[in-house]
C-alpha cells in the first residue's frame, strides 16, 4: 500500500498534484481548454476539499496530446476521442507484449 504523503507520491503519475492554472500553463492551454476536455470525457480531475480541480501528470500528458490535435485543426470532441483510442491501443499493446513474454517464459 502506498503512503498518502511523502516522496513516493512525487513519482506517482496519478497523483493529482497540479491546480487548473498550473496544469493549463504546463501544457500551454487555457483553463477553458481543460474544462472542455473534461466535459468531453477525456479526463476527470480530482477535486480538492475546497472543490478545486487537481490534475495528475498522466492527465496532463493526455490533455497535451489533445491540445496538439486541436492545434492541428481537429475539433475538441474528435481530438478527445482520438486520444482515448490511442490510449486504449497503447494499453492493449502493452498487455499483448506482457502476455507474449509470459508465454515465452
From TrEMBL:
GO molecular function, a single term: DNA binding
Domain of life according to the entry: Bacteria
Sequence ranges assigned to domain HTH merR-type in this UniProt record: 17-85
Pfam families named in the record: MerR_1
PROSITE patterns assigned: HTH_MERR_2 (PS50937)
GO terms for biological process, alphabetical: regulation of DNA-templated transcription
Coiled-coil region: none
Name of this chain's protein: HspR, transcriptional repressor of DnaK operon
Amino acid at each position: 500500500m502506498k503512503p498518502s504523503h511523502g516522496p513516493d507520491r512525487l513519482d506517482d503519475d496519478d497523483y493529482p498534484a497540479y491546480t487548473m492554472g498550473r496544469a493549463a500553463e504546463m501544457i500551454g492551454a487555457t483553463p477553458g481548454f481543460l474544462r472542455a476536455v473534461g466535459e468531453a470525457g477525456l479526463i476527470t480531475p480530482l477535486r480538492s476539499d475546497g472543490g478545486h480541480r487537481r490534475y495528475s501528470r498522466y492527465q496532463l500528458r493526455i490533455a497535451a496530446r489533445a491540445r496538439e490535435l486541436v492545434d492541428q485543426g481537429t475539433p475538441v470532441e474528435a481530438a478527445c476521442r482520438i486520444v482515448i483510442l490511442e490510449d486504449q491501443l497503447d494499453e492493449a499493446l502493452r498487455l499483448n507484449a506482457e502476455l507474449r513474454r509470459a508465454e515465452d517464459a
